[in-house]
């Protein structure tokens, strides 16, 4: 199992901390597409686009953004990060990503999630009281669509049944990859492991080991369902920046990260000003954020790998309106200085669960 390295972008619109100016949406979308081009040319493996239904994000329709990326790239894999499946129609999600798979010559993926931003639920007429049940039912249907066509289905309560439905197009890949995005909810981890689906662990703040119990539960659930936990993929999505030096990386990231954390999280009740001292703690050796020189980033990812047995890293770069030039410099360093070392050193995953470490 090779180790994959890529990027995440949310396309958030954050005012420049120095000038107070907001980016123009059309220009920011061009920057998002340029990010994919540079990542592809530099040799990164994956790029993900997050889904947020608010005016301070430009990526309300990730499949369209990913389709534009597909036409400007050649080899990088293209995924949502995440698709808020609970408030979407699995039939439409399949159609969009199967079309993306055809456009990209077989490079599409889906990371399905419940959604930590919940604006899409009232927007599309869903009740947050059904948050978990919506995701469970819709993921079931999406997996059935991937497996069978035409499809007869009548197992849900949130949409009408399907009878011999021809759901097209079919993906170019024999099995279009579907991951599940999981945060800190144990139930999500258990259900994902029982299904035998790859998991993308979303880490925001805290420490490197703060989600270890979640991954343990994921692998234990897989084992109890008769699956080999060592065959299941665990990915990590985390914010970070690769700088020329440790000090330069932190100095570049801090004002933008704290602005984004304040401005783009406030509508879900998590916006606050992150002090320099707290930021330093979150970027230190045990902190969750992947920030620093190339060697520091290598060491931090290796630490995550040791705890979780990850085989994919998606670094969320530029959060909070970091200038495009600084983002692209970080991407180049990630691709040329970090990725070769991680691919070489972490090619054999470490599987950690139930208090035991098994090198396979």
Automatic annotation (TrEMBL):
Residues covered by the Luciferase-like domain: 4-307
Please give the start and end residues of each transmembrane region.
none
Pfam family of the protein (one): Bac_luciferase
Q: What name is this protein filed under?
A: LLM class flavin-dependent oxidoreductase
Recorded hits in PANTHER family, A to Z, give:
BLR5498 PROTEIN, LUCIFERASE-LIKE MONOOXYGENASE
Q: Name any one GO molecular function.
A: monooxygenase activity
- Any signal peptide, and if so, which residues? none
Gene Ontology cellular component annotations, sorted alphabetically: cytosol
Keyword list (alphabetical) reads: Monooxygenase, Oxidoreductase
